[in-house]
Structure formats: structure tokens, C-alpha cells
């Protein structure tokens, strides 16, 4: 990909989990849907943890969260929050 971005595919040995991971700026980035799949939890649970991480000032959203444009299944472009490895670890 351009600008040093990569997408890496991870699959569990039994094939049950497959994740497309965005690698950029020396970290990985996942959205809440991907984290829900990774941790086998509902997306609302993931978002609650993320809000608590930011509310407690454990991490700053300015340095650990980014907004990207993503094309949805209906063909419309939507803005989506993605979270870096620090947030992923905090949620986990």
C-alpha cells in the first residue's frame, strides 16, 4: 500500500477468527467491530470500555484514536473511529 500502510490478515489456527489489521505509523489500528470480533464481545461492550479508558484519562483520544472514511455495505462512505494498539490492549 502507499505511505507505508499495510493490511495484515490474522487467522486463528482453527480458522474461527480472521482479522484485517491496518498497520500504520508503527502501530496497528482496529475499529470497534474488529475488536468485538477479536475479543468475542458485543460492540457496545467494546465502546463502553473505550469510553471508560478515555474518561479516566488512562489514554488520550487525540493520540490513540483516528477517523477514517470507510465504504459501507450500502455503498455510502461513512467516517469511522479506529483505535491503536494502546487502546486495543486497554480494552483487552
Description of the molecule:
With 92 residues, the protein is an alpha+beta fold. The chain has one domain (2-91). Helix content is 35%, strand content 35%. It has four helices and five strands, in the order E-E-E-H-H-H-E-E-H. Strands 1-2-3-5-4 form a five-stranded antiparallel sheet. Strand 4 (65-71) and strand 5 (77-84) form a beta hairpin. Helix 1 crosses helix 2. The longest helix has 13 residues, at 43-55. The chain is globular. The mean pLDDT is 85.
Task: Write the topology of this structure.
Elements: E1 6-11, E2 18-24, E3 27-30, H1 32-39, H2 43-55, H3 61-64, E4 65-71, E5 77-84, H4 85-91
Antiparallel strand pairs: 1-2, 2-3, 3-5, 4-5
Helix pairs in contact: 1-2
Main traits of this protein?
92 residues, alpha+beta, 5-stranded antiparallel beta sheet, 4 helices
Give a quick precis of the structure.
The chain has 92 residues and is α+β, with helices and mostly antiparallel strands. It has helices at 32-39, 43-55, 61-64, 85-91; strands at residues 6-11, 18-24, 27-30, 65-71, 77-84.
Amino acid at each position: 500500500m502507499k505511505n507505508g500502510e499495510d493490511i495484515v490478515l490474522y487467522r486463528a489456527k482453527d480458522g474461527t477468527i480472521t482479522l484485517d489489521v491496518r498497520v500504520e505509523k508503527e502501530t496497528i489500528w482496529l475499529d470497534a467491530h474488529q475488536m468485538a470480533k477479536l475479543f468475542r464481545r458485543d460492540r457496545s461492550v467494546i465502546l463502553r470500555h473505550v469510553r471508560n479508558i478515555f474518561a479516566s484519562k488512562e489514554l488520550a483520544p487525540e493520540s490513540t484514536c483516528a477517523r477514517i472514511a470507510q465504504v459501507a455495505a450500502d455503498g455510502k462512505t461513512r467516517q469511522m473511529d479506529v483505535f491503536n494498539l494502546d487502546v486495543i490492549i486497554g480494552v483487552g
